[in-house]
Design goal:
It is globular and about 45 Å long. The protein has 3 helices and 8 strands. It has a single domain, classed as Sporulation-specific cell division protein SsgB (Transcriptional Co-activator pc4, Chain A), CATH 2.30.31. The longest helix is centred in the C-terminal third of the chain and has 14 residues. The mean pLDDT is about 90. β1 and β2 form a beta hairpin. With about 140 residues, it is an alpha+beta fold.
């Protein structure tokens, strides 16, 4: 069983309210899915009272720490020297979430100890993925 890295971090929901809402977000990386990382948001911030999970490329999070990155549903960009903003787009609307760079970098370092950058293909179980498509 490949290792899983999880780290709970604080994030700020960016909106037009006078004070940002702080939430705990679980960052998750599973070595059996080496290209992706997941952000798990608590049910309290969802429209249907269930946790919200966003999955996207680990490289996107890394790139977004230093320059704007992304297309489609997830965009990431640096916000000053100490924060990074993630923009999540869904049919229901757009969410902007701001993270401290230190916690994101710590999490990414942990994921690279499980699967080093550039070595993701060595950890892919292609037969399992093909099997899941056929069934």
């Amino acid at each position: 069983m490949p290792p899983v890295v999880e780290q709970s971090v604080k994030a700020r929901l960016v909106n037009d309210a006078p004070h940002p809402r702080i939430v705990s977000v679980m960052l998750r990386y599973d070595g059996s899915d080496p290209l992706a990382l997941r952000m798990v948001f608590p049910a309290e911030v969802s429209l249907d009272d269930s946790e919200v999970v966003w999955a996207f490329a680990r490289d996107l999070a890394e790139s977004g720490l230093t320059e704007p990155a992304g297309d489609g549903d997830v965009h990431v960009w640096p916000c000053g020297r100490a924060q990074t903003v993630f923009e999540f787009r869904a049919p229901e609307g757009v969410a902007l979430v701001q993270f401290d760079n230190a916690s994101l970098r710590r999490f990414l370092r942990s994921t690279y100890s499980v699967v080093p950058a550039g070595k993701e293909a060595d950890h892919l179980d292609v037969e399992q993925h093909i099997g899941s498509l056929i069934v």
